[in-house]
Amino acid sequence: MAKNDDLNRLVIVGAQWGDEGKGKVIDFLAAQADVVARFQGGDNAGHTVVYGANVFKLHHIPSGILNPCTLCLLGNGMVINPQILVRELEDLEKRLIKTDNLRISGKAHLIMAYHQAMDEANEKMLGEKKIGTTGRGIGPAYADKALRRGIRAVDMLNFSHFCEWLAGILPLQNKILQEIYGQPGFKYEELCEFYRPLCDRLRPLIIDTDLLLAEEIENKKRILFEGAQGALLDIDHGTYPFVTSSSTVAAYASAGTGVGIGWINNVIGVLKAYTTRVGEGPFLTEQKGETGAQLRERGNEYGTTTGRPRRCGWFDSVIGRYAARVNGLTGLAVTKLDVLSGMDVVRMAVAYRCRGEIIRHFPLDPSDMKECKPVYEDFPGWDEDLSNIRTFKDLPPAAQHYLQAIEEAVGVRMEIISVGPDRSQTIICPESQAAVWMRK
Is this prediction's pTM over 0.90? Predict the structure, then answer.
């Protein structure tokens, strides 16, 4: 475990294919944070936070926004849809949630209307080979960033400058839409007027967040770095090409916020007690019959952003170990343990059988997974309702045994266990880095 004085900076990342319940974990830990900084992705991410009768579904805005004393940052590694962000702010304000503690990195790139149009058209063109994107324009926005023709949040500070950038970029975007995808383009004057009120609304929030974070670190403030999606959706380390368009692993918390890598020492990976994914791509432990349907309904496994039903299956320790390695995990948070109550048997993939060989590592080429089958270990289930349990020792022995098996298989210490969607339905393991964080 890290030294106590190293625990002022903590990264939370997904350790499966996203949708692991990071929103709840971040919201819970944000109560002890001075700053929550989101470092990648866009409104394709969906974090659901529940406390009492209140359910909040966030897309751009960090889960820490529900803690009024916590400063929330959208980092330079993100892509931001101004229309969606303004809508999120308005929705929160209608529910009397304070939003003046949000700041936007001027270096973050913008998702424009033509990016969404391209994303949808490209998926349609791919047909059966589609990636399964959310259609939110994430990939085209990151592509324009890499091609150095993107519009950034800093460009919204001066509306004339914003329109000048748009005037130089739009002809090419329209040509791509019309000649490649057979879609209508956008009119320059109409787009300018569409974005005018959005620029006005967001302008006061756009700052140099790199500088702010440096000052907060110097002042020994507590910073929580929030990731979106999961390790297996990382553009480099995920099941390519069925991945997102940004780097989702913990190392990008540094690049995506402008904080030197030496300042970040602790990483908690969030895993479901089973496995889900949305969209296309390999998923060896997927259960397409009654078990998968049971997990989906019990766990309410429908995408926060799209509402799509999630594919559901047993816990896969092979991808858990892989995520631990590529993220440098120092702790685990296991969510939705309560969903498994009532199962006669709980299964875990401990290895893959590929072409007659047993392997315990994730294949270099994800397409090789077509030749692999999971090797399962079975564990006895439990019937008890876990929702009111708040300590590890009070969990049913079978549930304790299963969690210990996850910890041993992944090779990382258990920190947090979620036994329900509400903030209060959380177990903090004693003497863990999460326990130290919550005591400060």
Answer: yes
